[in-house]
Amino acid sequence: MSTVRSDKPFVLAGRTYQSRLLVGTGKYRDMEETRLAIEASGAEIVTVAVRRTNLGQNPGEPNLLDILPPDRYTILPNTAGCYDAIEAVRTCRLARELLDGHNLVKLEVLADQKTLFPNVIETLKAAEVLVKEGFDVMVYTSDDPIIARQLAEIGCIAVMPLAGLIGTGLGICNPYNLQIILEEAKIPVLVDAGVGTASDATIAMELGCEAVLMNSAIAHAQQPILMAEAMKHAIVAGRLAYLAGRMPKKLYASASSPLDGLIK
């Protein structure tokens, strides 16, 4: 018995992906755990902090691309650790050079080291420059619908509002703002940051997000490889539930079976 799934494909920068789970590569105990967790997640897109990871710029040191080859995964370089637009743009240019002209990047410009909240003013500045230089920009931002709209108008290919602050595992703190962003969006919306467990990922997908990006929720789990597999299934379940359409919420119960026509 087959299930009919009327879903549109998940497309980024002209490429179609089967998995709607994007994962980070930091915070694992070692390279082998990184490899195994990402394999278990089923992710096809992996994000890499260019300023903290060796992609070949440090000869003689372990190279992440040896365990996550670009012919198997789409490498998504990010600007983690950047605190102004100039720094972020420079990092994206370095990534393009290291990855042989690769234009897909994740832009994040942070406001401070305590909260890791996005600096939206510097983010907007960097996005304008990067789009003009031909980058395909996926952008980490606040859950402000106006900022999300402006980033889309600049030409970013996806907006990535936070669910909660990076690394907190608090889940979706403001689903109402996220719903507004989703209602207005003409480009893919991906939840980025704040996911703590599988149910958080499912909720994000049930709201209508195209995909979810996470790192800490997997890497900081007691068993990262097992959590990676849980997240794979959570994303699928949430997407199917979104497509199916949930039942209406009611204040009172109603009988599962109608009473009309019963033999008396």
TrEMBL record:
Main location per the UniProt record: cytoplasm
GO cellular component terms listed in the entry, alphabetical order: cytoplasm
Residues binding 1-deoxy-D-xylulose 5-phosphate, per UniProt: 167, 193-194, 215-216
Subcellular location: Cytoplasm
Record-annotated membrane-spanning stretches: none
UniProt KW keywords: Cytoplasm, Schiff base, Thiamine biosynthesis, Transferase
Superkingdom classification of source: Bacteria
Gene Ontology biological-process annotations: thiamine diphosphate biosynthetic process
UniProt KW Phosphoprotein keyword: no
CDD domains attached to this UniProt entry: ThiG
Subunit structure: Homotetramer. Forms heterodimers with either ThiH or ThiS.
PANTHER family in UniProt: THIAZOLE SYNTHASE (PTHR34266)
Full protein name: Thiazole synthase
Organism: Pseudomonas gingeri
